[in-house]
Design a protein that fits this description.
This protein has helices at about 5-30, 65-75, 90-120, 120-135, 140-150, 165-190, 195-205, 210-245, 250-260, 265-295, and strands spanning about 35-40, 45-55, 80, 85, 155, 160-165. It has about 300 residues and is mostly helical. It has one domain (about 85-295): Orthogonal Bundle (MetI-like fold), CATH 1.10.3720. The strands form 3 sheets. The chain has a two-stranded antiparallel sheet with strand order 1-2. It has a two-stranded antiparallel ribbon with strand order 3-4. A two-stranded antiparallel sheet has the order 5-6. A hairpin with a 5-residue loop joins strand 5 (about 155) and strand 6. It starts with a helix and ends with a helix.
């Protein structure tokens, strides 16, 4: 029975990525270190076994070794054995909560700035150079500034425990300021791309500035804005790793840094894979929402 074109395409969309992943795993296995056991005779005449790792990258664990070492974090993903010893999905959830807060701040701040840049030439002339200077700054530079700016922030619960401190505020500040730039730039481009005819019709209908904004500018700019939102989300997820590594917060980034200090290479690979998979899922979800918006 011949497969239809749709079935063939669907099969290819599954098989080709699977083959690519298999190929990457094969390359990983080839360059990873392998344990080699040799039998030697010591100075006392006793036979001893000496195990050493050899290979292109001797310290890199193989895929099987990575699975064996990381199995407990994957099979019990929501376990909590300690502050920095939790299941991988629990760590991911902690990271995603902080990303969501910082991302919301990025959109809340970046969207109005983008509209101002697009609507006002004077505002754009005044602030565009500043934005272009600040935009490439690394999160590694913003975080220490955030720690200084919010050093006095301390929210405590009834038991006297700190629920929101300087490191939390600095983390949100860093995520927001790094993630907002794509939203700012894409929103500004979208506003400038609104056809003049739309604005002329709004003037003929004597729409107020508020109605012109919500009835004309926002709908026309929304596709550009959504592209900015999608890029901002990706950057927010990238920044969270650096923020958690520097502050020692529990999360995927904090766990990665802890395992690096412990020389646990298998867990480092686990974190890298989880970071990539979560970033991919977030991007696909935003892409799906964007496509639904365009067809609406």
């Amino acid at each position: 029975m011949n497969l239809t074109l749709f079935q063939k395409l669907k099969l290819e969309s599954v098989m080709l990525p699977a083959l690519a992943i298999l190929g990457c795993c094969l390359i990983w296995y080839v360059i990873a270190g392998k344990s080699v056991t040799t039998v030697k005779t010591d100075d006392w005449g006793d036979t001893v076994k000496v195990t050493k790792r050899s290979g292109i990258s001797a310290d890199l664990p193989t895929p099987v070794e990575t699975w064996t070492a990381s199995k407990a974090y994957i099979t019990d993903p929501f376990a909590k054995r300690g502050e920095l010893d939790q299941g991988i999905l629990r760590f991911t959830w902690l990271s995603l909560k902080l990303v969501a807060q910082g991302y919301f701040l990025a959109l809340l701040i970046g969207t109005p700035i983008g509209f101002l840049l697009g609507l006002s030439k004077k505002f754009s002339m005044a602030f565009d150079p500043i934005i272009q200077i600040l935009r490439p700054v690394s999160p590694l530079a913003w975080l220490p500034l955030g720690m200084i700016l919010f050093s006095g922030v301390k929210v405590m619960d009834a038991g006297g425990r700190t629920t929101f401190g300087a490191s939390d505020a600095a983390a949100l500040f860093t995520i927001a300021i790094c993630a907002m730039w794509p939203t700012v730039m894409n929103t500004a481009v979208g506003v400038r791309a609104v056809p003049q005819d739309y604005l002329n019709v709004a003037k003929v209908l004597k729409l107020s500035r508020t109605k012109t904004l919500w009835k004309v500018l926002v709908p026309a700019t929304l596709p550009y804005m959504f592209t900015g939102f999608r890029l901002s989300l990706g950057i927010a997820w990238l920044v969270i790793v650096a923020v958690e590594m520097l502050t020692g917060r529990p999360g995927v980034g904090g766990f990665l840094w802890q395992q690096y200090n412990a020389n646990s290479f298998a867990h480092i690979i686990l974190c890298i894979n989880v970071i990539g998979l979560v970033g991919y899922v977030l991007d696909r979800l935003m892409s799906l929402a964007e496509s639904k918006l365009k067809t609406a």
